[in-house]
Design the sequence.
């Protein structure tokens, strides 16, 4: 068997063996819709006038420009514009809890803490991206925001994190403006002095466009890594990250990434062509350089006899 034929056989066998793997990954890689309890865990008490289906949810507004001139108060009480946290050219994770929340808000912040601390998310808070928490309660104070920041920085225990995780407060109009821009719906319940709100976070691009949503209170480090890579427009992350991101499809209905079989097959197709080239080109070059054995030429009808 020639080298060319052997190479073709090997490549064909490799492609055939790999095909079921891609099919299985494509069939099982898509994330399922989160249960309603995660996307909207709040069930308001009766007779509150709050409709959990319409008043408490996320309306995904991908690519919407956030108003970076919108003003809030930082932990020291100073008035700051949102653009202060976008000037680093890094993506921003937005969280909108309220700091005295007795329930789901703490779980949301705990989820952010967990993904920030997870070593599988190799991006470092402060250096590679920012986290901005904005209270939805206009009565909350910078002192309360400071206490909340100290609490989570202590739990995180990462040097330099204080430059990357910010806890803001603001007035009703500016809070509502930001919430509307990212599609975050909430409603105040005066009977309980509480806020009905959705659970989840938003990832924004360095120039302030809404890039991705995460629902619930758990934000897997692997998916956060993909979201930060995409939101940063290639400014952070490695070539491997970009290839993985190409193979994954963001589902705005579930706020998750799933493996897209068509994109996987595209990558597989390019890989197959590359492998074929590795075998075929050297074989053609070798055949072209090999000396040719020419048959003996005889006149028609005459057989030359060997001389003894």
Sequence:
């Amino acid at each position: 068997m020639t080298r060319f034929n052997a190479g073709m056989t090997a490549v064909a066998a490799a492609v055939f063996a790999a095909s079921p793997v891609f099919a299985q990954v494509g069939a099982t890689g898509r994330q399922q819709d989160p249960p309603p309890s995660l996307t909207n865990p709040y069930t308001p008490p009766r007779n509150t006038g709050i409709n959990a289906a319409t008043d408490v949810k996320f309306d995904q507004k991908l690519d919407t420009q956030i108003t970076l001139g919108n003003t809030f108060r930082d932990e020291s009480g100073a008035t700051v514009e949102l653009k202060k946290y976008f000037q680093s050219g890094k993506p921003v994770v937005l969280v909108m809890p309220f700091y005295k929340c007795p329930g789901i808000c703490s779980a949301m912040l705990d989820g952010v803490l967990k993904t920030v601390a997870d070593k599988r998310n190799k991006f470092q808070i402060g250096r590679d991206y920012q986290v901005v928490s904005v209270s939805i309660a206009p009565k909350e104070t910078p002192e309360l925001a400071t206490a909340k920041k100290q609490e989570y920085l202590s739990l995180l225990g990462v040097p330099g994190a204080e430059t990357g995780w910010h806890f803001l407060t603001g007035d009703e109009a500016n809070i509502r403006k930001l919430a509307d821009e990212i599609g975050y719906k909430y409603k105040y319940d005066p009977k309980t002095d509480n806020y009905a709100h959705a659970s989840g976070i938003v990832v924004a691009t360095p120039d302030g466009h809404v890039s991705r949503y995460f629902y619930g209170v758990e934000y897997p480090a692997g998916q956060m890594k993909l979201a930060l890579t995409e939101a940063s427009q290639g400014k952070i992350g490695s070539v491997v990250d970009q290839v993985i991101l190409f193979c994954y499809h963001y589902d705005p209905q579930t706020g998750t990434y799933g493996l897209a079989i068509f994109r996987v097959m595209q990558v597989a197709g390019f890989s197959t062509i590359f492998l074929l080239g590795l075998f075929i080109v050297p074989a053609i070059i070798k055949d072209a350089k090999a000396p040719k054995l020419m048959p003996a030429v005889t006149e028609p009808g005459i057989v030359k006899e060997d001389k003894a």
Residues 49-233 form a domain with the Glutaredoxin fold (CATH 3.40.30.10). The mean pLDDT is 76. The radius of gyration is 30 Å. The first helix runs from residue 3 to 28.
